[in-house]
Every structure is written in structure tokens, then in C-alpha cells.
Amino acid sequence: MALTGRTALISALGALFVGFVLPSWLGILTVQLALLLAILCDLALAAPVRKLHITRTGDTTVRLTGEAATHLTVTNPSRRTLRAQIRDAWPPSSFHPGTEVPASRHTVRIPAAERRRLTTTLRPTRRGDHHAVRVTVRSHGPLGLAARQGSRHVPWTLRVLPPFTSRKHLPAKLARLRELDGRTSVLTRGEGTEFDSLRDYTPGDDTRSIDWRATARRQNLAVRTWRPERDRRILLVLETGRTSAGRVGDIPRLDASMDAALLLGALAARAGDRVDLLAYDRRIRASVQGRTARDVLPALTEALAPLESELVEADARGLAATIHRRTRRRSLIVLFTGLDAAPVEEALLPVLPSLTQRNELIVAAVADPRIEEMAAGRHTPQAVYAAAAAEQTHAARRRTADRLRHHGITVIDSTPTHLAPDLADAYLALKSAGRL
Asked: Which domain of life is it from (predicted)?
């Protein structure tokens, strides 16, 4: 039973009134007995909480920057009117700061044998699975002096997907892909190494593409057109060890890598390549294999949604062995990892020869934009020292990148906003050059 502020107010007014008529002790006793009787009557008339039927429906997935709606259907099977305050409790990360109280609490009046639907709007601030905690109902009597209260678990799970902010770059990259594929009108069409067709020579064509045998048969100049190879294997590898947990700006490095992986996965699927995913630190954390072009992007998004960094040192040898088991034929391996000198030199470099022997390898690393800001500062003595430290960090990353390039590896070291488009451009350049 819960008492309200109205109870205390009535008690005070009753004591003040009776104090003028009866002796103080008798007046107080009379007021207390009357108040107790009113509370018991009010409590008896409050609709029971245990008999309520509560079900839940609503959204099951939402992107990190979006909104989701979950609905509670409350049915009152009793003969009394339900006057209640209902709280639909979720984890704090399911709401933007400051919006949890108004979004999760509802005041309702449900007559006997009727139902109402209550909507809770969620605006998650973290990826992953968000689970409903409990539904708490406080049922008031008609006088508002007392209330019944109870809680129950009404299960529901909302999966919050990566925001995929780099989706805005996809139309431009697909336009470039169509140019490489020879499906748009450009001066030089059909770059690549896979023969496509013959056509008449036009001014500006590369003379090395002239097919002299076909020209002799057709009595006019004919040139070969080429298209990028299709059905190539792309393996996206996210290293989820401790280095991926560091924050750059407002997001972890892992989230920036996810965004770039989604853009490359969508682009490669549209290019006709087969895209797989592997997330690994000391064991496999997420995996996507054998999906069709239509299913690749949803599968990648679902697999990445609950993925979190582990505060352990990544096992480079175990990662290399897992990659070998996944790549039975020549593939493009895109490894999302850091460029810190110690982990690369001690763990990654020893296993590189086995990875690059029959595969094309890209190492994609997330650079901290704050380092660039520090490097540009010169206005105070403290800024000069910070700029010197930033330049030293840049130099160390360049040395590490140069060592990787010495092994024939393509290195992309970009800030979170540029990593995804830069990686897509590197993929298109390899495809155009016939290196996949």
C-alpha cells in the first residue's frame, strides 16, 4: 500500500478543525480513525494490479541515430476502474539524457473490462541489445489517498544497429563502379582485366586495345573492352582487442571500423564480389559467410550490432590461422587494426608473409583527428609542446605504415570521417588495376 501527499494534507486539516470542538487528544484520535477508515476504503476500491494483463509489441531493430517505439497493451479485467501510473523501465542507454522520465512514465484511466495501448519512444545512445527491465503499476483509489503497487517482467529486446553514416558515400562509389564496369558513357570504358566485348574504335581509345584480328575480319578498327573481375573473395577482418577500444572523438575505434566495413561490404556486393566478415581477438567474436549479394549488408549489420571490444591483447597467430581456414583461394583481406608500433612489430609483422603470399592485403587504421589539431597549434608554449608530441606520433605511425607497405600491403590511415570513403577508393583502385 502506498500513501499519498493528499493523505497528510487531510490529516492536518482534520486535526485543525476538530481541535476547536473536542479535547486535543480526542480530536486527534477521531481524525486518525476517520483517516484510516478513508484510506482503507480507498485502497479497497483501487483496481487490483495482479489481475492486469500486459502484453508488448513494437520495433525490434533500430539504427543508433533513430527512434524506436514499443507498445504496452494494458487490459483491466476487474470490475473497478484503473487509475494508475505506469512506468515502462529500460536501461538508461535506451534514452537520450533527460528524456527517460517523460518517455517511460504514463498516467492512464482504464474502465472495467477495457484496454489501453501505451507507447514508449526509445532513442538509444549505444549499439547492441537493449532488454526491457520491468513494468511497474501504481493503482490509485478514487480518493487518491492510497494505492496498490506491483511490478512484473514483460520481456522485449531491441537490437540497436550501427548507424552506417558512410552510406551517404555509396552513390558516388557506385557511379565510379559503373564507370569501371563499362555501364556508363565515358571516354575510356571497361577498365579491368576480364574481357567484355568488341566495339568500333573511337578517338581517344587506347591503341593498345585494338584487336587486329577482329579488325581484319570486320574491315574497320575494333577495340577490346574490359571489365573488372567479378566473383572475387573479400574478407573483412575486425581486430577487436584492446586497441580497438580507444576512443577517437565521440566514438570507439571499433565503431569507425564498422562504418568503413559496411560501406566496403555494400560496394563489393554490388560489384559482384563475395563478402565475408570475421571479428577476432583471441577467439571469433562475429562471423558472416556465404551470403548472397542481397543479404550481405543486412547480415553484416546484424553481426556487428552487439560486437564490443575486449580488453585483451589480440592473438595475431590465431587470427592468421583463422584467416587461412577461411580463404581457400586468392582473396582480398581487409584488416581493421591499429598502427601502434609495438603491436604491429611484435605480433602482426611476423605473420604477414603467410597472409600476403597468395592474398591481397589492406590494413585500415583509424587515425585520431585530435592529433592533427594538436599538430597545427603554435599559439602558446603549451601548444608548441603538444604540436611536437603530435608530430612525433605522426612520424611513428608513418614508420609503421612504411614497414607494412614494404611487404606489399596497402595501408589506409584516415580519420573516422574519411576512413570509409578512402577504403572504398582503395578497393576500386585495386579492382581497376586487376589486382583482385
From this structure: Bacteria
- Does domain 49-161 bear CATH number 2.60.40.10? yes
Question: Measured between alpha carbons, how far is 347 from 9 in angstroms, rounded to an integer?
Answer: 72
Calculate the CA 338 to chain-centre distance: 20
Q: Which of 32, 4, 313, 332 is nearest to 143 (CA)?
A: 4
Q: Given its phi and psi angles, is residue 426 left (phi above 0), alpha (psi -120 to 50 degrees) or beta?
A: alpha
Beta bridge mates, 73: 55, 117
100, three cell numbers: 527517460
Burial class of residue 378, CB neighbours in 10 A (0-12, 13-18, 19+): exposed
Helix, strand or coil, per DSSP, at residue 421: helix
243-260 pLDDT per residue, tens: 899 888 888 999 999 999
120 backbone dihedrals φ, ψ, rounded to 5°: -110, 120
pLDDT in tens, 366-415: 999 888 888 887 788 888 888 888 888 889 999 999 999 998 899 999 99
Please name which of 263, 366, 369, 304 lies closest in space to residue 64, comparing C-alpha atoms.
Answer: 304
Q: Residue ranges per domain, the chain?
A: 49-161, 167-172+231-433, 195-227
Rg of the chain, C-alpha, whole Å: 33
Cα separation, 246 vs 268, in Å, equals 28
Instruction: Give the amino acid at 428.
Output: L
In the sheet that holds 68-76, the strands lie side by side as 53-58, 68-76, 114-122
Q: For the purposes of burial, counting CB atoms within 10 Å of the CB of 322, is it exposed (0-12), middle (13-18) or buried (19 or more)?
A: middle
Query: Where does the pLDDT of residue 78 fall: very low under 50, low under 70, confident under 90, or very high at 90 and above?
Result: very high
Distance from the Cα of residue 147 to its chain's centroid: 42
User: What is the model's pLDDT at position 231?
Assistant: 73
Alpha carbon separation from 13 to 6, 17, 94 (Å, rounded):
11, 6, 44
Q: Kindly indicate whether the domain formed by 167-172+231-433 is annotated with CATH number 1.10.8.60.
A: no
User: Which ranges of 327-380 would DSSP assign to H, the alpha helix?
Assistant: 341-343, 352-356, 369-375
8 Å CB contact between 333 and 436: no
Quick one: DSSP state of residue 271?
A: T
Contact 192/432 with Cβ under 8 angstroms? yes
Short-list 292, 351, 294, CA closest to 319: 351
